[in-house]
Write a structure and sequence with these properties.
TIM Barrel; about 30% strand; IGPS_HisA/HisF; alpha/beta; about 250 residues; cytoplasm; single chain
C-alpha cells in the first residue's frame, strides 16, 4: 500500500489566508508565505495554495505570493485559482509550483485538461472538483461554490481522468468548514470510479476524521485547513493518530 499523504490547504483572498464555512463567512488567518513555510518544516507531505477569489473576481492568481511561497516550501506544491488557459499553467509552473489545479475553467473548457496534460505531463495537472449534493446526486459547482453547473460530479471525475488529469482534488461544499468529518459517500463514489489519486477535502475537524477517510475510502491523501490554521492539532499529531490506527502514513 502506498503511504497516505497529509496536505494543508492555504485558501488565499487578497493576499491573506482565509477560512470559512460552506465557502462563505470567511475569516482572515495570516500571511500565506509564512504559513506555507511553517507547514513545510513541520511535516506536511504537500501543500495546496488556492487563490479562491481569482476566478470570481476575474483576475489572475497573485504570482508574487506564489513565487515567494515556492522559495520557502520544500515539499510538492500545488497552485490553483484563476487558471483559464495553457499560458496560466506555464506561468504557475515557472513560478515554482509543482502542479496546477484547474476548476471552473476546465468545466467551461474541458480541452484545457488535455492541453495541460499533453504539454506539461499528467503529473502536473490536478482537477479540483467542488461538489454539492442535490436530489439527483452530486453536482459540480464552480466560481467558489456560487454556480451550480448541473454536471454530475462522478461523471466529471471520470472525464477529467480520461482527458489526462493526474489527480483529483475533491471538495465537498456541504462539509466545507463544518468540522464534522469528510463526506464519505461522495468521496467513496469518486474514488471507486477513477484510477488516479484522489485528495479528500472538506469537513475535517479532528485527526480521527482523517483516519476515518483513509480507513473507509481509498483516497490517496487528506487535505485539511482549519485544524492546522487554528492550531487545534498539528500535522505530527495527525500522523501519529493515523499510525496508531494502522494507517500507513508518511512520517513527519
Amino acid at each position: 500500500m502506498i503511504a497516505k499523504r497529509i496536505i494543508p490547504c492555504l485558501d488565499v483572498k487578497e493576499g491573506t489566508v482565509v477560512k470559512g464555512t460552506n465557502f462563505v463567512s470567511l475569516r482572515e488567518l495570516g500571511d500565506p508565505v509564512a504559513m506555507a513555510a511553517a507547514y513545510s518544516k513541520s511535516g506536511a507531505d504537500e501543500i495546496v495554495f488556492l487563490d479562491i477569489s481569482a476566478t470570481h473576481e476575474g483576475r489572475a492568481t497573485m504570482m508574487d505570493i506564489v513565487r515567494q511561497t515556492a522559495l520557502h516550501v520544500f515539499v510538492p506544491f500545488t497552485v490553483g485559482g484563476g487558471v483559464r488557459k495553457l499560458e496560466d499553467m506555464k506561468t504557475m509552473l515557472q513560478a515554482g509550483a509543482d502542479k496546477v489545479a484547474v476548476n471552473s475553467a476546465a468545466v467551461a473548457n474541458p480541452a484545457l485538461i488535455t492541453q495541460g496534460a499533453e504539454t506539461f505531463g499528467s503529473q502536473c495537472i490536478v482537477v479540483a472538483i467542488d461538489a454539492k449534493r442535490f436530489d439527483d446526486g452530486w453536482h459540480v459547482v464552480t466560481h467558489g461554490g456560487r454556480k451550480d453547473t448541473g454536471i454530475d460530479a462522478i461523471e466529471w471525475a471520470k472525464e477529467a481522468e480520461a482527458r489526462g488529469a493526474g489527480e483529483i482534488l475533491l471538495t465537498s461544499m456541504d462539509a466545507d468548514g463544518v468540522k464534522t468529518g469528510y463526506d464519505l459517500p461522495l468521496t467513496k463514489a469518486i474514488v471507486e470510479n477513477v484510477r488516479i489519486p484522489v485528495i479528500a477535502s472538506g469537513g475535517c475537524g479532528s485527526p480521527d476524521h482523517i483516519t476515518e477517510v483513509f480507513q473507509q475510502t481509498d483516497v490517496s491523501a487528506a487535505l485539511a485547513a482549519s485544524i492546522f490554521h487554528d492550531k487545534t492539532f498539528s500535522i505530527e499529531e495527525v500522523k501519529q493518530n493515523c499510525q496508531q490506527e494502522g494507517v500507513r502514513i508518511r512520517e513527519a
